[in-house]
Design brief:
With 605 residues, this protein is an alpha/beta fold. 40% of the residues lie in helices and 24% in strands.
Length: 605
Amino acid sequence: MYPTDDSKSLLLVEDNPADAALTAALLEGADVSFEILIASSLEQALTLLAEHDIDAVVLDLNLPDSRGVDTLRSVRTAHHDVAIVVVSGANPPGLRAEVLAEGAQDYIWKNEPDANFLARCILYAVERHRAQEAHRSVRQLLDANPDAMIVVDGDGIVRYVNRAAEELIDQGSNLLGEWLGFSSGERLTEIQILNGGKPRTCEMKVADIEWQGQRATLAAIRDVTENRLLAEQVRAAQKMEALGMLAGGVAHDFNNLLVVIMGNLEFLREDIADEEQLTMLSRIETATERARTLTRQLLAMSRRQPSHPIVVRPNDLIIKSYTMLRPSFPKDIDLAFIPAENIWNVRIDPSEFDQVLMNLAFNAKHALPRGGRVQVDVANVTVREPIGSVMPGDYVRVRVSDNGTGITPEHLERIFEPFFSTKVAGTGTGLGLAICQGIARKAGGDIIVNSTLGEGSTFTILLPRTHDSVTTPENAASLPQVVGDETILVVEDDAAVAGSIQHALQMRGFRTIHVDDGEKATRVLSDTNQDIDLVLSDVVMPRMGGVELARWMTENRPEMKVLLATGYADNVDALRAENNPMREFLFKPFAPTDLIATVRMMLDR
């Protein structure tokens, strides 16, 4: 039984007209019909193959314009999609094997066939060629697949490995012929594969298939290591965002409490003359200032702390951070600060400087599981050549060094990448150093790291020198000796904060009107009978907050001055960018001294 009864298109390539006619006549007596074209040269054969849809070629190797196996090579190179049966008058040893190796589907000696034998050879050659082409196409698809593909036969012997599998699996190219068992059935499982000695997380799906006419199993393996890492980074970012929102909310409420505490402390200081009681007030003020610093650090962690660069003495900031850090370090770790004289001033937000120093110190602490030494020292340096993003100039150098485990060279290259962490999974987000570098660069400097494995690490903060004088805080000993008789509209939803603000203003002669949200403020401002000189509004309030109120005033009362009080900088940067001289910002927690000074400045502007 033949593979098919359909008519086949056949090209006879034969330079001997008698042989060509004999073969055509022979095929007419076969049980299957052929549509026969005849070519007497290689050139003519190639032309007919290009012009017609040919199923099979019966090819004589010796033609006027080509001889031997080269004839077969020419036809196969030009037309890989056609079955070829070589018919030769000679039958030297090895010729059959050679033509089959060059891509022919069969080889026939001219003295051998009868009609049905020749027809059967041609039909089987067509079918065999189609199967080979289909198999070749499947292999090409598998090779092009980015997933690793492995085929094993029914006995578990590996019959095929694609390029991706060779790259993913150590010694993958040596798997051919080896036993590798896969359980049958279509399902997805997670496996670990060593690649370059490092484990890779992979998903594998196994399916039963047919390979070269035999039952086989295909394993498709996808490397999901990077995807899992990205998913972990997204979860870490979401966790940080949630923590940031929580920290921001807690800091906002805590700032309101500090406004009340700081305000009443100043009110009491004006009424108390007893030295012992004043000492008690000073202790409360010290504790309040520490609480204020903690709040700023919470906001810095949540990235809601407005940046307030001022001119500072680095020694003062380091001593303040050292005082807070020392109690959190175990006794087997020596935390040392080595100050220096005549250190230049720098311009940076103090809370951001605290954040950088605390992050580097805690990282050094984690690098000392069995104890050791963390040292912070400071010096003036002049940079002669560019170092990273640091240009030549005068800088203050703050170094945080440890004698701990050190950092491997491959980790050192990525140490400032967001989400990259050398800590155990679940103990670090990989954001700390990236944020610290961002703070240093925002101040015009940078952070440089050096490390030797087993000896320790040194993080060097370079901050540009400023020749400006240190920013002097307002004298908090007493309320500023300024008075006023203007009317201030206080918009604040916290009754205690509103009471403290009103009391401070009224002590200096200002008149106050209080409402607890922005919508009520718009009604007061729309009343032509109300003479308002300044609006002092909280930013975060129910219904209408301070940002919305400020924008309403821009459209409806553009001449009105507004002072926005906020604990963090959400939406404030956008308002600042509008550069409206009728607006100013007062950041919580503030003392009455700050409040009165800012109100007077706004009214006199």
